[in-house]
Design a protein that fits this description.
Phage tail fibre protein N-terminal domain-containing protein, 5-stranded antiparallel β-sheet, 32 strands, Phage_tail_fibre_N, single chain, flat
């Protein structure tokens, strides 16, 4: 939803201008972002501009046009160099009085500028004011339909194409005659000569000599050119002369303009000047005279010699002639024919073989015998000599162990008598025996049997204790009324009439004693042994 209103301030302003007979002037559009803007609420006709912190962009009116006698439209064109910001309010303003004539509240919209490979957007915003006599009051007579078309993208494409064509013709940089040539002006000051140059396809010109100061050396003086302007104004090449101790490259500035940078001269520590102005493209070639010199075409080191004749080639006496393949062949043929006519023309030393002995090649018999010191060996003779020596080292019938599946060449694997046997080292006669295969003797586990079970019987013998073996003790007694005499174990007592209690003397020694006997015991048990030992398989082979 969009809300729009013509303000009370404009009504007053319009009346004043009509009374004075002067046109109404609305020359600026202001864009703002108002947080929490309620589009359902009508706009206050007495309001002015929002707080400065909410204003995101101000731009002069690019064009105004009439729609009919009572309606005029004001437009701004924001190309891809403008941004980035969001806005949800537009104001048509008289910039002199900062008076708001019209206010619009709308949905939030983005304005994005082009940044490198990220392409921005172009917006055209138009505000239509309708009131009686609008055309007469504003004195706007241009029909809006004749101009409100955005050609910015196409125009930028045309500019880029023209720059590319110029760069093809002039190269990265081309300077006409002495244009931009640097000369010393005293101290740290230097001067650039006026003239025209093409830098990255842009035509740049110094209308007059330009001074530049080089505060630190060594340093390089650069020409920095870029193409700039607004959508509705002229576009021109802007030129800046820059001094830097660091290398400078092409770049895009904060406004989105592409800068083309080229070195002009290098100032050495001593103050000496090295000219770095570019010399490239078709233009530079066109500036050359029709009759090029060797230096101009990069052949300054090539001698201007004629081609040798056959006689000159065969004689080999001319130092100012070039040889062709034909002349070289003719010279070679003559030298070879002359060489063939000589007898023993070369010695070993002349051909670089003075250290090589003049030996014949050994025969097979000589190689196998190994007795000749004046023979050369070929690969075949070496192999024959080795083959002759091998049988003497391992006679036929020799048996050996090999840790491999098949017997080597010249050997036969024994498969009949020794399969699955263990090895035994002896000092006597070699042979074989036993009845159990190696792997059968060492299975995973072995257990002892439970045989060996036996019993033991225990019998306790009878034993009569002696007095000394009986623990010490005594016996008590009781006598009723009357008078008695008795003797027991040396005890003699006379008791008075009436009851009396007494006891025997203590007897017994409590000494130790033993019993003979036997027991029954069960000895049944078993043990488990791990027999799965690791092993390496080998074969026995017989030399043939």
């Amino acid at each position: 939803m969009t809300q729009s209103v013509i303000t009370s301030a404009f009504e007053t302003y319009l009346a004043d201008r009509l009374q004075a007979g002067e046109p109404t002037i609305l020359d600026e559009m202001v864009l703002a972002y108002i947080p929490d803007l309620d589009l359902q609420q009508p706009i206050d006709r007495t309001q002015g501009l929002p707080p400065i912190g909410q204003i995101v962009h101000r731009q002069p009116i690019d064009q105004a046009g009439r729609v009919n006698s009572n309606a005029v439209v004001y437009s701004v064109v924001m190309d891809a160099t403008v941004g980035d910001f969001d806005f949800n309010a537009l104001y048509l303003v008289n910039s002199t009085a900062d008076m708001v004539a019209m206010a619009v509240h709308k949905e939030t919209e983005q304005k994005i500028k082009t940044a490198g490979a990220s392409v921005g957007n172009s917006l055209v915003k138009s505000l239509l004011m309708e009131y009686d006599g609008a055309v007469a009051a504003t004195q706007i007579n241009v029909d809006a339909g004749t101009w409100q078309i955005d050609f910015s993208a196409r125009l930028r494409g045309i500019d880029a194409d023209l720059q590319a064509q110029a760069q093809d013709h002039y190269g990265q940089a081309a300077f006409h005659a002495a244009a931009f040539a640097v000369t010393a002006a005293g101290g740290n000051d230097y001067s650039l000569a006026p003239g025209r140059a093409y830098i990255g396809g842009l035509r740049a010109e110094l209308a007059a000599s330009q001074s530049v100061t080089v505060p630190a050396r060594p340093a390089t003086i650069y020409a920095d050119a870029y193409y700039a302007g607004s959508l509705l104004s002229d576009w021109d090449t802007m030129l800046t002369i820059t001094v830097s101790t660091d290398p400078l490259l092409d770049y895009i500035d904060g406004a989105g303009y592409q800068h083309r940078v080229t070195p002009v001269a290098r100032i050495e520590v001593s103050g000496a000047i090295t000219d770095l102005r570019g010399r490239g493209g078709l233009w530079w070639h066109e500036q050359r005279p029709a009759a090029h010199t060797k230096d101009q075409v990069g052949l300054d080191k090539l001698d201007n010699f004629a081609t040798a004749s056959q006689a000159e080639a065969e004689a080999g006496s001319k130092a100012d002639r070039f040889m062709t393949p034909l002349r070289s062949r003719q010279l070679a043929d003559k030298l070879i024919q002359a060489h063939k006519g000589e007898t023993s023309p070369h010695t070993k030393g002349q051909v670089g073989l003075d250290s090589v002995d003049n030996f014949a090649t050994a025969s097979q018999e000589e190689a196998e015998a190994g007795s000749k010191a004046d023979r050369f060996m070929t690969p075949l003779r070496v192999k024959q000599a080795i083959a002759k020596l091998v049988p003497a080292t391992f006679p036929a019938g020799t048996r050996m162990l090999f840790q491999q599946t098949s017997a080597p060449a010249g050997w036969v694997k024994e498969t009949a008598s020794f399969n699955n046997h263990a090895l035994r080292v002896v000092t006597g006669t070699a042979g074989n025996g036993g009845g159990t295969d190696f792997t059968a003797a060492f299975t995973a586990n072995r257990a002892t049997s439970e045989s060996g079970e036996h019993n033991h019987s225990i019998t306790v013998n009878n034993h009569t204790l002696t007095l000394s073996q009986i623990p010490a003790h005594k016996h008590g007694g009781y006598v009723g009324k009357g008078s008695y005499s008795f003797e027991h174990h040396q005890y003699n007592s006379r008791m008075p009439i009436g009851s009396y209690q007494d006891g025997t003397d203590s007897a017994g020694g409590g000494q130790p004693h033993s019993h003979g006997g036997s027991s029954d015991l069960n000895g049944k048990h078993s043990h488990t042994l791990k027999m799965d030992v690791k092993y390496v398989d080998i074969i026995i082979a017989t030399k043939q």
